[in-house]
């Protein structure tokens, strides 16, 4: 079994900063891409940022210049540093990872975190 456990969400004032963490655990053989998505009520989940196994990063326009994604491969953890937060960044943030388990070598499956509420409000 593989689990992705998120932490770091909360309430922050406009212009503030917040860092989300997501740790993968279980029978992991390797982790390919990792990323962050977000969702607001009645809207589809949208991609926020991604990072490859080699560390290459990419961002949605909404977070460009304000969000930084990083990963610690030794800890199987991905981070999302968010700064200059705006009220429109309010959402539930989900981490995502493409993982090859020890029991299923050669098969990469998609896993999601439980979601972390980020609220930007004065």
How would you portray this structure in words?
This protein is mainly beta. It is built from no helices and eleven strands. The protein has strands at 2-7, 10-12, 18-26, 28-39, 46-51, 57-59, 67-72, 77-82, 91-101, 108-112, 116-120. Strand 4 (28-39) and strand 5 form a beta hairpin.
Task: Describe the sheet with the most strands.
Answer: 7 strands, mixed
Compute the number of helices: 0
How much of the sequence lies in strands comes to over 45%
The strand count comes to 11
Write the H/E string, N to C. Answer: EEEEEEEEEEE
Determine the mean pLDDT.
97
The first-to-last residue Cα distance is 40 Å
Question: What level of helicity do the residues show?
Answer: under 10%
Shape verdict: elongated
Structural class: mainly beta
Radius of gyration based on Cα positions: 14 Å
Which parts are unreliable, with pLDDT below 50 for 5 consecutive residues or more?
A: none
Question: Which helices and strands, and how do they pair?
Answer:
Blueprint: E1 2-7, E2 10-12, E3 18-26, E4 28-39, E5 46-51, E6 57-59, E7 67-72, E8 77-82, E9 91-101, E10 108-112, E11 116-120
From the structure above, extract its key features.
122 residues; mainly beta; elongated; seven-stranded mixed sheet; 0% helix; 59% strand
Q: Outline of this structure?
A:
The chain is an all-beta fold and 122 residues long. The protein has no helices and 11 strands.
């Amino acid at each position: 079994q593989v689990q992705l456990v998120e932490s770091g969400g909360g309430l922050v004032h406009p212009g503030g900063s917040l860092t989300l963490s997501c740790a993968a655990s279980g029978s992991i053989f390797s982790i390919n891409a990792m990323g962050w998505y977000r969702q607001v009520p009645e809207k589809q989940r949208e991609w926020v940022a991604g990072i490859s196994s080699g560390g290459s990063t990419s961002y949605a326009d909404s977070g460009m210049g304000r969000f930084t994604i990083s990963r610690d491969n030794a800890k199987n953890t991905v981070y999302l540093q968010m700064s200059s937060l705006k009220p429109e960044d309010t959402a539930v943030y989900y981490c995502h990872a493409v993982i090859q388990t020890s029991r299923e070598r050669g098969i990469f499956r998609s896993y999601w975190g439980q979601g972390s509420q980020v609220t930007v409000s004065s």
